[in-house]
Each structure stands twice: as C-alpha cells, then as structure tokens.
Amino acid sequence: xxxxxxxxxxxxxxxxxxxxxxxxxxxxLGILYIATLLKDExxxxxxxxxxxxxxxxxxxxxxxxxxxxxxxxxxxxxxSGKTAARIAQKVREINPDITTVFxxxxxxxxxxxxxxxxxxxxxxxRGEGEETTxxxxxxxxxNHSLKxxxxxxxxxxNKIITTPDRPLIKDxxxxxxxxxxxxxxxxxxxxxxxxxxxxxxxTLLSSRGCPYRCKFCGCQKIAHGTWRPRSVEKTFEExxxxxxxxYRQFLFVDDxxxxxxxxxxxxxxxxxxERLDVEWICEGRVNHSSYELMRSMVKAGCKIIYFGIESSxxxxxxxxxxxxxxxxxxxxxxxxxxxxxxxxxxxxIIGAPGETRQEIEKTLKFAQEIHLDVPQYNILGVFPGMPLxxxxxxxxxxxxxxxxxxxxxxxxVANIHPDTVSYxxxxxxxxHYYRQFFVRRPNFFLEQIARTLKSPFRFEIIKANLxxxxxxxxxxxxxxxxxxxxxxxxxxxx
Length: 494
Description:
The protein is 43% helix and 18% strand. The protein is α/β, with parallel strands linked by helices. Strands 10, 13, 14, 15, 16, 17, 18 and 19 form an eight-stranded mixed sheet that branches. A seven-stranded mixed sheet has the order 2-1-3-4-5-6-7, with helices on both faces. α15 (357-369) links the parallel β16 and β17. It is globular and about 65 Å long.
C-alpha cells in the first residue's frame, strides 16, 4: 500500500499578501506525524509541501503520478482547501481509481459539505489523524467495511456515512518522532517575505490542546478542551536528536506551551544543563509568564515570544472568554523584557461585535504603550468549528445562505454582524497604527537599535533580510489577516 501526502498551497482567491503568510513558512508537522506512523507500520509513504516547493496544480498532479500511490491525502485549512480540491480533481483525471482523503481542521468541520461539493473526495478524517489513518489504511488494504473505522466520514453508494468520533490519544509520548527527512524543503519561518529563522529550522511539539475556551479558537472542539503534554524527557530527546542533525532554530507549535510553568522550567534547565546549542520561538499566555519562567526560557535559547493580548478593553476580553486582563499583558511584556527576551510580539484581534471605534483605537495604541517590538493586528473572522460561528448561526447573524457562501474560507465578523465598525474602516485604522508604530516614533527606532546592538540573534535576522527590505515594507503595509483556524490549530496539523 502506497500513501502520498500533500500539504496544499494557498487558494487562488486569497490576495498576494494573504498568500505570503501561508506559503513555505513551516513544515507540515501534522502530516509528518501521520506519515511516520504509517511508515513504521510498513506503508510506503511520500510527502510534498506544495506551497514550499512552489508547484502549480499541474506540477503537483504530475508529482502524484510519479509516486503512483493507492491513497492520496491532503491536510487542508481554510486558506488551502480549495487548492486541495483542485489538485484532487486533476489527479482523478489521471488516475480514476485513486482514493482521496482529506484531513485537518477545515475537513473536520466541513466533512459533509466537502463530500457533497467535491465528488473527487472520498473520505474525510476528522480530528486527530494518526490512529484513524492507520486503521483506515488497514481497512482499505484488506477491503474491509469503513463503517468500523472511527473518526471518518465517507461516501458509499451515493450516501454520506459518518462514523463515531475517535477518542483522543491519551499518551502522546507513544507517538513516534516525526521523520523530517520525508521532506526535502528547507524552511526559515518566513512571514510577509521576512526570514525569521536563518539557520536550519523546523517545528516541534511538546503538547496538544488547550483547556481554555476562547470564542475565536477552534482548538477546544478539536481537542475537546483537554491539554495533553509530552514528557520533558521525550521532548528533550527529540530536541537533542534534531540538534545532532544540524537543526539550530525551532518553533514550538503548542497551543498552550507555558500553561504548566514548572514543566517548561524543567525542560529549559535540562537544555541549559546539557548546553544544547539551540534557539527557539514560542507562544505564551500572559497569565502564565512568571519571571522565573521567562528567565529560564531565555537561558535555554528562547529568542522570540508571541503573547496573545487580543484587546486592551476588559469588556472585549470577557466577550472573547480569554480569561486575562490588560494589566496581565502589561506585566507579561515587562517581565519578558526584564528576563532578556530578544523579540516580544503581541497579537491583537480587532472587530468584535459591539466593539467601538474608540475601543479599537485604544487597543491599537496599547501595543505602543506596553513597548512591544512587533504588534500583529488581526481582523476577527469566523470559520466553521469556532464557537463564534455557532453563536452567530444561532443568533441569526449567519443565515443558511451566508453559511453556504462562507463555509470554506470564513468571513470577517465586520461583514456580517450589524453592530461592528465597518471592515474597510478597521483596515484603515490598522494601516494607520502600523505606520505610527514603526515609522512615526523616533524613540522606538532608537530603542530597537540599542536592543539590536546587544543581540547577536537580531543581527542574524537583519543580515538574512537585507535583500528583502522592499518586499517586507510592502508586506507590512497590508498586514491584515483574519484571526481564525490557521493560528489556533497548529498543534494538530500545521
């Protein structure tokens, strides 16, 4: 049995700026987990990251033809689902007998719609994919009934059949270390044309899921509100192995890396004790960011931390069910700075229902007040699988017609909710405050020069991007994105 995996590129409908955010940034770690598990079971596997390779749909179909697989699997997000369907159609024209499988967030919450809309798709793997895909392959190989495979939706005799959900893997230490040699692509954590990791780079997972219930995040439905850590020993074992293979820069893709501060402090102390020569990036919650944790992370090579700040208005934070305060955000940034973090990024979500223009401006200014190095402003969007999607449907803000129109790529809340600042006005406010943040503050510029003079890591980033300045400036001018599944489900399937 031969199984080919594809991480599809961005949909044609996305703007050039939006495409630049999802092309070739990180290796598809979710695919690598599944492919490695199958390979260990004796299945012949191959993997293509279409976005990173820059392949057209025709080139991708020819790659599949060369691999000649029995099963073709796609890991698709809202930004790439339509591309996956187009590739599947082109492949089906070449090989009508191939079995096509879709997985990941987009597929999990649109399983019926995908099978109805795209007849070239045969099976949907819902939720966590490792055990389901392994069982699916065995059933297909032995020609057994798919009705016994938990966690799939499939078409049989013009009927769509949904099997019961598969329980989550309780002990993720049992999963194999992903075989990154399955990919030939070189990654550098590229965003808006800028290289964020000039050395040999990959992604790493130390836990899955999140116990928090933010309304804009689909993680809770995928992970059922649970958090499952890998042991410190297993995580360090993978880090040590990757370091021996020449990897020097990493991104932890955990949804909740710092939720157990003692665990991460233990990992960091082990990295420091063993003198592992690595640099890494991660996300962190502002209410889990003690000085002891931040300092341990810095000593262990953490160079960039992303904080999900979201808003400077407590009322909006409470609406999002974020369970933080603006003061915690202030304190977290101050603590990370004191601990010696090289770059501190803050993520904000603009355009909540009922959020006024004054509240939006207050949040956009907040990034300057708390002395972030980089703000990331996102316009709130909704996708199937997010609690907000269900809320809007129940309250009539998403009609059946609108659901049919937006289920694949999501929609900005400002375009469907009557009590919001207009989408165009939000975009203009964001552009204005980006310019103000980076261009119109001489003191900020001087501070960044001073920090760069003290940071070899910053020097490396600048050196790697010297030839990309014009592209980066253009990208930042249009850095407006939906806050949604691409940023909230990475631990399951990047």
